[in-house]
Amino acid sequence: MPEGPTGSTVPRRQLGRYLRELRGQARLTVRAAARKLEWSEPKIWRIETGQTSLRSLDVEAMCKIYGAPADLTEALMGLAKETKARGWWHSYGDVIPEGFDLYIGLEEAASSLSWYEADLIPGLIQTEAYAHTVIRTHNPREDAEEIERRVHLRIARQGLLTRVTDPPKLDVVLSEGVLRRPIGGKNVMAEQLRHLLEMSELPNVTVRVVPFEAGLHLGVLSGPFIILRFPLNADGVETEPPTVYSDGYTGDLYLDKANEVEAYDAAFTDTWDKALTEQASRRLITEQVGSYEQG
Prior knowledge:
Elements: H1 9-25, H2 30-37, H3 41-48, H4 56-66, H5 70-82, H6 100-109, E1 112-117, H7 128-138, H8 144-157, E2 169-175, H9 176-180, H10 186-199, E3 205-210, H11 218-222, E4 225-229, E5 243-247, E6 252-255, H12 258-274, H13 278-294
Parallel strand pairs: 1-2, 2-3
Antiparallel strand pairs: 1-4, 4-5, 5-6
C-alpha cells in the first residue's frame, strides 16, 4: 500500500537547499567546492538539487568546507539519515524513467496539484486500459510484462487521491481535444470519460474543460504542466517551495524559482478562468461519452 506523504524526496531537497545556501554564504562556486571536496561538479549539482541521498559523513565534510556552525552541522547530518528512507515506488525502481522518482515523491508529499493537460488524461485519473495504450505507445520496444509493470505503477500512484490521511486537492483543466481524441479506441475512451466523471465527484478533485471556442489562452503557449504545492508548517510557512513539473518527451523539467512559479500560476489561472464551469464541463464530458457509445 502507498505510504503517506513521506519518503526520501522531500528531505533530499531540503538538505540540498541548505547545502546550496551554505556554499553560497561561503562564496564558493560549484567548481571550487568540488575541488576542495575532491568530488565531481555533477555530484555537487545532484546533491543540491535533491537528486541523490547523502551519507552523514559527506554532509559533515561539506559543512566543514562551508564553515557551518556545529549545531547546524549536526542537524543536517540528521537530515541526511532521512534521505535514505524508501518510498513505496522504489519497488518499481527499474521501470521508473531516470529522474522520475523525484516527481513521484513530490506528488506523494503535495497538498495540492494544479494540472493542465492539452492532449492526454492526467495519469492520476487514467483507467488501466487508457494507461496501457499510452504506455505501450510510448515504449514500443518493451515487452508485455514490462508494459504491465509500468501500468501497475501508474495505477498504484492513484491511491493518494483517496488515502485516509490528507489526500491532496487536485484541480484539473483539460483542453477539449483531450475528450475528442479516441485513445485506445471508442470503447476505451468511453470508459475513460465515465471514470473521469466519477473521479470529479471526489470532494478533493475538480475537473474543468477549456473549449476550443475559448480561443488562445496561456495554456496553449505553456503546454501541459503541473504546479505542486506542499503543506504548511506550524508557522504557516510551506514545508517545500511550490514546484512546476513538465513531463517532456525526452526529459523532465522542474522549476521552483518564484518568478517561474508565478508565470505558471498565471497560465493556470488564465486557462482555468476560460474553462467551462464544473457543471458545464460534466455535461460536455457526458455528451462525449454518448458520442463514443453510439459510434
